[in-house]
């Protein structure tokens, strides 16, 4: 259980910080809380669409983070 929560915390923290940092080069600059909201909505597969990455590098980062989350989290849950 500790491994699951620590992995989830590290994924959310690194995704939030990297998305916020990469989105600085985009047209819409997002603060840290909005980036955290985006990451939580994306990781929960809800995807409201109110915030989205508009720069190619941040899009690539989100694709990689979703792949890592779907690859790592199921093994920690089981």
CATH architecture: Orthogonal Bundle
Overall geometry comes to elongated
Helix content: over 70%
Q: List the helices and strands in order.
A: HHH
Instruction: Give the count of helical stretches.
Output: 3
Mean pLDDT: 86
CATH topology: Helix Hairpins
Kindly name the structural category: mainly alpha
CATH top level assignment = Mainly Alpha
What's the number of domains?
1
Distance between the termini: 10 Å
* Count of DSSP strands: 0
Low-confidence runs: none
**Largest sheet entry:** none
Outline the fold blueprint.
Elements: H1 2-22, H2 32-43, H3 56-77
Helix pairs in contact: 1-2, 1-3
Structure report:
It is found in: Membrane. Helices cover 71% and strands 0% of the residues. The longest helix is centred in the last third of the chain and has 22 residues, at 56-77. α1 (2-22) packs across α2 and α1 (2-22) packs antiparallel against α3 (56-77). It is mainly α and 78 residues long. It has three helices and no strands. The protein has a single domain, classed as Helix Hairpins. The protein starts with a helix and ends with a helix.
Please summarize what this structure is.
This protein is mainly α.
Describe this protein with a few key phrases:
78 residues; Potassium channel domain-containing protein; transmembrane helix; Helix Hairpins; elongated
């Amino acid at each position: 259980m500790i491994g699951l929560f620590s992995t989830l915390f590290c994924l959310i923290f690194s995704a939030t910080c990297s998305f916020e940092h990469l989105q600085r080069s985009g047209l819409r600059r997002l603060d840290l809380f909005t980036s955290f909201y985006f990451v939580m909505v994306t990781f929960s597969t809800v995807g409201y669409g109110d915030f989205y990455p508009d720069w190619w590098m941040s899009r690539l980062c989100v694709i990689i983070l979703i792949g890592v989350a779907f690859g790592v989290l199921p093994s920690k849950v089981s």
